[in-house]
Amino acid sequence: MERSAGFVALGQQTIATSIMIRLLLLVIVFQQLALAQEKPTAPTHVPNFKLPDQHDKLRYVQFPRSKPTMFIVSDQKGSKEIEAWVRPVRRRFDTQIEIDGIADLTPVPKRLRGVVRRAFKDELDYSVMLDWEGGVSKDFRYTKEKANVFVVDTTGKVLFHTAGRASPEQFKKVYAILDAALKSIPQAEERRRGTP
Length: 196
Hints:
CATH architecture of the largest domain: 3-Layer(aba) Sandwich
Order of helices and strands: HEEEHEHEHEEH
Strand content: 15-25%
Distance between the termini: 102 Å
Number of helices: 5
Number of strands: 7
CATH topology of the largest domain: Glutaredoxin
């Protein structure tokens, strides 16, 4: 009797170990699948759109624009990385470019939108477009949980996209692309006027 109870206990341990190993393998497979998923690819052009900001003012983005634009698109988790992008770019280019922020707020329930809008008003002195439904954010195909920087020329063409923390290497790229975009504006204006 004692011996058969030992076999039963050993059998139960073996079954439990087998289940644990299978669960562990499933977790590993799902992690590998998640890692294998490609980052979303940036769009080639930004469509015209309109969104309200935290002051409930409707903001229109229409192309062509008079200046190149750096759009920063983020959800709540990626918002921690935004300031490190904006300050240096604003310092370097001042008013030569537009910097527009878009907050993906699709997870916010309708009943809490007023609270979130007030929090944006209290925290920020610059306008941020609030994407409650997620349509515009979806058009940007941004990487979630990161600050996404899109450098766009005056026609709406996406010249550069990166996601994540700001770094010296990324700033070099952004600066070079914005410098080139700014240099092309007078040439485009001259072509429109018909001067060589």
